[in-house]
Amino acid sequence: MDDIPDDRTDDQADDTDDTDDTDGAAGASARSVVTQSGAGAGPPGRAGALVVEFCGEEHRVADRLTVGRCADLELDTNPYLHRVVFEVLHDREVWWLRNVGRRIVLTVRDSLAATTTALAPGSAAALTFPSGTVRFRAGPITYELGLVVELLERDADLRTGDPDAAPRTLEWGQVELNPEQRLLVLALCEPRLLDPDDGRVPPARVAARRLGWTPSKYHRKLDNLCAKLDRAGVGGVVGDLATFATRRREVLVEHAIASGWVGVEDLVDLDGTGTNRTP
């Protein structure tokens, strides 16, 4: 693994052998004591901001975040959990994940490539994928956190086809959907597919719950898909006005159904992703 500057305090580097008997469940507190980066906090470097997801909550990191029992992001009071298990930090225009514990091995998974890497204590790895997870076990409890590098995710969502493939003739308004984009289209088209006379388009909060996504993830994915369609020549999907939000979803649904992207037989793919369909 690559090396990055080590500026931990002695307390952060220490493991914990505390003997408190609290058997905390994963995510019992799941709170962050750092100030989340707001609209005015620009993403660092070319990688953009990092989003750490845990128990349905998202923590947008501008430069650095520690994770553990007594860290910026407190997972719970599990006495087998290190005070600081790992940290993510931005350095040299790249996000890094560093295992700062003494015994816990982290399993880092690239969701796009479906590959995993074991990160031993004291080692670090660059987060070069758009989204993934970090998983580890402390005593009887297994933890899993999501990781999203915003600009890399956007690049992946906007990508159409194999970049190494030979150039081909493009069709207006036709784009290749990645798996999450296809699920998003299905969730938005579901009422129309079930009843062609139903002109409703699910509100953002309903579609996000249907998919099992956080509102932040839903809006990121919708923004990226609309930008992809705009590049392909589809009008009416990109704009800044608040009143435009509903209209762009309507345009997306109309275009997806007219183009034959999804059919009623595809709705089974939504099962198990989030909430059940609302009658």
Shape: elongated
Uncertain regions spanning at least 5 consecutive residues: 5-45, 165-170
Output the CATH topology of the largest domain. Answer: Tumour Suppressor Smad4
CATH architecture of the largest domain: Sandwich
SSE ordering: HEEEEEEEEEEEEHHHHH
Proportion of β residues?
15-25%
Describe the protein's topology.
Layout lengths: L9 H4 L17 E2 L17 E5 L2 E5 L2 E5 L4 E2 L11 E6 L2 E6 L6 E5 L4 E5 L4 E3 L4 E8 L2 E9 H9 L20 H16 L9 H8 L3 H17 L12 H15 L21
Parallel strand pairs: 4-5
Antiparallel strand pairs: 1-5, 2-3, 2-12, 4-6, 6-7, 7-10, 8-9, 8-11, 11-12
Helix pairs in contact: 3-6, 4-5
Written description of the protein model:
- The strands form two sheets. The chain has a six-stranded mixed beta sheet with strand order 1-5-4-6-7-10, with no helix packed on it. Strands 3-2-12-11-8-9 form a six-stranded antiparallel beta sheet.
- The protein has helices spanning 10-13, 150-158, 179-194, 204-211, 215-231, 244-258, and strands spanning 31-32, 50-54, 57-61, 64-68, 73-74, 86-91, 94-99, 106-110, 115-119, 124-126, 131-138, 141-149.
- It has six helices and twelve strands.
- It is of the alpha+beta class and 279 residues long.
- The protein folds into two domains: 10-153, Tumour Suppressor Smad4, CATH 2.60.200; 163-270.
